[in-house]
């Protein structure tokens, strides 16, 4: 392996005492060659981020290298002093991060942040530095390079910030690039562009790239080789072809099986039924800014309608209107034949139980001070059940969503993210609603957990004949669960129709763009 | 006991707890601990560590009226503990209720309450006290009123900020969509989630209040004599402090150690809170 | 929002605050006209004298009329006569304000230099011995009441070491030596507070993503602190400095009384002891005005230092 840029041998990083396992990273052996993208895939807690931080000499406090070596041009990176590191970082190894906006200093212009790399690692003149910075910005395909260079980070979009971060990482043309979830915080169309840029770095400039991600779709799009990590260990390593088409390890198989594909699931044809939820001509404005334009949707009992859109499309505003956290500027929302916008006071209270919501953040949606059982039982009481009925219903629901009975007396802190989402579902169902809103309810979850929660939702929805509005940014997830899909762009519905139609024969250019940008659509 | 372990592992918290609870204990046990009646005149201006002419031993000396300083310090602890706690509690009742209401209701209610709080907070604290005391006079009840009036707006602001933060979380939205009543949302969903930072603030505020009562006493605007009051003791002894420094130094040490104890305790609480938050 | 619009809005709020404050002050001190008469004419005046005085000075008019008249007079510079000193209030207040400004200005200098400096040193590398020492020091200084630190410092520097004068009467003209103790006492509390705020802000900034970016570019610690951290970390402390003025004004009263310094604080204090109500009114109004102005300045500084925030978005 003498041609490797970086040769990691048997690397272990110890966790502090009292952690749930002794090592964050255990016995990892990997190498990266020039002109190659090595993807490290893993779910949260797999140790992938600790691994890369260690490779940059920036392991989080409390963690220490317990053994192994990481050789770069014959030098063991793990033994470097802080002073030696300063010569290597930015010059020999470039780093790209997950949060592009937060990774740039808010008080400095883009130009001065890019030029700083030259100040640190070269003796270029001021004019040369400015010229090089401009060249880099152009090479990142950023529009109006002169304006960008003069801008502060908050004046740029997330995608533009990420290109600036990449430009900084490339300034000294380091042979090795490490990218830690570089596209996770970006919209899917922006993600596709950044991924294209990263492929270009490999093909045109010959960089060796370590790319860390949780998203197997992204992996399928760019990886030459794949390392799958789980609980600190590499469980599978091979070429992209081998790992994706013929996975050996059980965990890899589960991961691949859990990846949502763009192929719509078979769902029985709709029976003609009166809609449980009917929204007509919904408009919403924040001050002078109109964010929803004439939205009309209808969902029948037992059906799932997905609203798909990128950030800023207005999809969350629809959700807030539906559960009446905010009131629309105009329009009608009818649930089971009754207009819920007209209701106030007691009438509104009666209306609320018919339309319930499952929230995005599994950590913010449950009161940390309350026990799970009484929390669910309280929802039942509010829907009109007696105390005894409510307790029974809460216990049944916990079982229904796949939790142990002992969950009843525990507090939210005792549960994982996926389990908390199940509790959120049970709480919503305790009110026996007609309509269920799921606002990005699986986006915060690891892919294997996401698949389980999606299955649960689909199952419950069928059994209880619920009308579900499923709001998501991820077309792949929508494909898994929807009967119908509505595509939202800048507050307008640009396309609607049965899921299979929208996914296979998209009419609107924006829908086509979304589908083309969906990572890994050819692989899964 | 298990809940206390993270606090007990920090030496500064231990010192703070020792000082604060030490003074609390002194206040409670004042009748037992004080060697003499704090108001009784024995022998004027005896220096510390001296035996008086009638054979009494004065550990910290006596003041110009011949009262035992140690006894006055011990009873003074009771004075400050009672009035500081009382004033802080009443300020908290006001600040907490209005803060919850303003933070949750928002809109015009919030704007009006905030403006009023800002008006009161625009007064430098001591100026406000002086005006209040000039109008209503210095008496124990009036001191409690003055402190309540001036610290409630500060508490209001803190509670309001925390309430807005907690109310923006999804579990509160969930409660609203369930049709939960506003009172239950305030007292079951929001209030219990504010206790961490409020406990810290309560400790600090107790210290401020003790300082305030002491400062008013020092300015001669505090509890009327002959109540044993640390600030008042400094005020009375100031004129003769050059010849008899013990008249002012001991009360100053007393109040400084009490407020230092409360600050250290608050710091410890905050650190443990932060650590908990990071874990969650 | 443009700077002009922002200033207009802030000024409007400030004026509303001042109107409310003036109403409260007037309400507190002059709603009971009998008491006003007693305070002005003294305990031993007769009922007839008081009644005549009240009539003569328009005190029998409705409360609101009296308030508006008083406010109009105040705004136009007629602050009334001190009942104790028998002199125009304004002539007494202004020179004293100047004397206190010297004291507060000196304290502010101490606070800024030591508060920011210690806070940055501590927050650069949290958890080190230096950080702990500074943190403990600032807890101690923020816990000790002004009058107690005055007692302690005077005990050490006046009685024990005999280095400094124990009073600051400035009888024989301006003396720098006489300023040292009052300025130190005044600075001590806010200095510790500012150091804590600065440290916390510094620690926050040092753990941000963009500091990590700078480090992974290969920048050294000193470069990271000076070029990347400081400007962002100083936004909060700088605004906090301005907001320390109310505390400083409270401290001024204690310190001036302790060191017999002839400033604004002793003026207000004596006015309170003498029940000199017109003087109290003027002093209270002026001190609130200083606070309100400092708040506007603090808001402007915040907007100016922080390129991310548009003016007025903070609220």
Element-level helix/strand string of chain C: HHHHHHHHHHHHHH
- Individual helix count of chain A: 19
Q: Alpha-carbon distance between the termini of chain C?
A: 13 Å
Q: Round the mean pLDDT of chain C to the nearest integer and report it.
A: 88
Radius of gyration of chain C: 24 Å
**Shape type of chain C:** flat
Q: Count every helix of chain C, treating DSSP H or I runs of 4 or more residues as helices.
A: 14
**What's the overall average pLDDT of chain A, rounded?**
90
Please describe the biggest sheet of chain A, giving its number of strands, its sense, and whether it closes into a barrel.
6 strands, mixed
Poorly predicted segments of chain A: none
Task: Report the sheet with the most strands of chain C, covering strand number, pairing sense and barrel closure.
Answer: none
- What is the helical fraction of chain A, as a range of percent? 25-40%
Strand content of chain C: under 5%
Describe the structure concisely.
The complex is a heterotrimer of chains A (524), B (280) and C (315). Chain A is α/β, with parallel strands linked by helices and 524 residues long.
What can you tell me about this protein's structure?
The complex is a heterotrimer of chains A (524), B (280) and C (315). Chain A has 524 residues and is of the alpha/beta class. Chain A has helices at residues 48-55, 82-88, 110-121, 126-139, 145-150, 158-170, 188-205, 216-222, 240-245, 250-258, 315-322, 345-352, 372-382, 387-400, 417-429, 447-464, 475-481, 499-504, 509-517, and strands at residues 6-14, 23-32, 36-41, 64-72, 75-76, 93-96, 176-180, 208-213, 225-230, 233-239, 277-286, 289-299, 304-308, 330-335, 338-339, 355-358, 435-439, 467-472, 484-489, 492-498. A six-stranded mixed beta sheet of chain A has the order 6-7-8-3-9-10, with helices on both faces. In chain A, strand 4 (64-72) and strand 5 (75-76) form a beta hairpin. The longest helix of chain A is centred in the middle third of the chain and has 18 residues, at 188-205. The model of chain A has no long low-confidence stretch (mean pLDDT 90). In chain B, 72% of the residues lie in helices and 1% in strands. Chain B has helices at residues 5-8, 11-28, 30-33, 69-105, 107-121, 125-136, 140-167, 170-177, 182-190, 195-218, 230-237, 246-279; strands at 50-51, 57-58. The mean pLDDT of chain B is 87. Chain C is 77% helix and 0% strand. Chain C has helices at 3-30, 33-41, 47-56, 63-75, 89-124, 129-143, 146-160, 176-206, 209-216, 221-233, 235-243, 245-259, 264-273, 277-305. Chain C is built from 14 helices and no strands. Chain C has 315 residues and is mostly helical. Chain B binds chain C through residues 12, 115-116, 118-119, 121-127, 130-135, 207, 211, 214-215, 218-221, 231, 234, 238, 241-242, 245, 248-249, 252-253, 255-256, 259-260, 262-264, 267, and chain C through 16-17, 20-21, 24-25, 28-29, 136, 139-140, 142-148, 151-152, 155, 159, 166, 245-247, 249-250, 253-254, 257-258, 268-269, 272-273, 275, 277, 280, 283-284, 287-288, 291-292, 295.
